[in-house]
């Protein structure tokens, strides 16, 4: 299985060479990513961690970087003398880490899991612990950590139902990885049960909670809200619908719903924030084909359109959490299509009523909590989403109750970052004592 995995990884790298070359020519950030991927770092990149045995946090993308941020901030608060390195596998995740994690001593792109690269980079950095966030377990990297006796601690761990089935197909290889992990800090009892079912030692599994509850969610003042509304061309209009983290196939449904909603609410506005920002220009064109005026968020300052446009498509990084404060209703995407949903805590922290589709299996515990307390509605299809959207927008008391309950849940469930750092400290102390 290990040999087959490595052959497939090498083949994927070879097949991807033309694509990588094309992106290198067009994107400065991708050239930086490729250098990091191959183990070539500018001296200043690792200056604060090289030779100092940092704790290495690996966060796949933006969501995982956000989840890791509260842990890293708490870690540096309790252990300021231990350097921290964070890596991400995507450009957007890397940029998010640079924006929200000034506490990190180094930020790099994560190397591809090719047979020879992880060992070389692990040897160069020499971490005292490797901390994958959520489900970031890569066979060659885990093997490199095991060979060098580097403890691996999974934090904010979550295992989806689909992942359980996929991992079972790779049982032999996955069991080796699980045996290397010295502590599994899982988001929920369901996630803990899943990882144990896959073969993790129950004595190493701990439920610490979801660190995304611990984010310092931006509080937006009334003056800031008015500024945002003016910038977006939403001032004096409304209600405002925000669709966050949408996926291909959902925008068409949302546009039909928006068209129907404007029959009752002709001043309504819509913001769409796709999960993959490169799709934003295409969504603008799609909205225009549906008969709406639409524009990218980044191009609004150039627009000379009295009253703004009907639809704004977000193409910036890091703004969505604050812009949720403008919403009268939030739809969280990846849930009308079978992707598994996305994090509903950002709009919840702004006290907003939330609607999702039926596919929330990647956030099952959070979703169950919010829907069980009527802080989140579920629409099984586009027709039901249209009905529930209109209901919330036309029933202020219902919208207020849902938003208040969502905010209460966020406030009640803080503390996962502290519990996670306490577990990390325990493992680091044990390792130092036996070193």
- CATH fold group of the largest domain: Rossmann fold
CATH superfamily of the largest domain: 3-Deoxy-D-manno-octulosonic-acid transferase, N-terminal domain
Given as residue ranges, the uncertain stretches (5+ residues, pLDDT < 50) are none
Query: Termini separation (Å)?
Result: 33 Å
Average of pLDDT: 91
Radius of gyration: 22 Å
Strand order within the widest beta sheet = 10-11-9-8-12-13-14
Strand content of the residues, in percent?
A: 5-15%
- Tally of contiguous helical segments: 19
Structure description:
The chain contains 19 helices and 14 strands. It has 435 residues and is α/β, with parallel strands linked by helices. It folds into two domains: 206 residues, 3-Deoxy-D-manno-octulosonic-acid transferase, N-terminal domain (Rossmann fold), CATH 3.40.50.11720; 191 residues, Rossmann fold (3-Layer(aba) Sandwich), CATH 3.40.50.2000. The chain has a seven-stranded parallel beta sheet with strand order 10-11-9-8-12-13-14. α4 runs parallel beside α5. The radius of gyration is 22 Å and the shape is globular. The two termini are 33 Å apart. The mean pLDDT is 91.
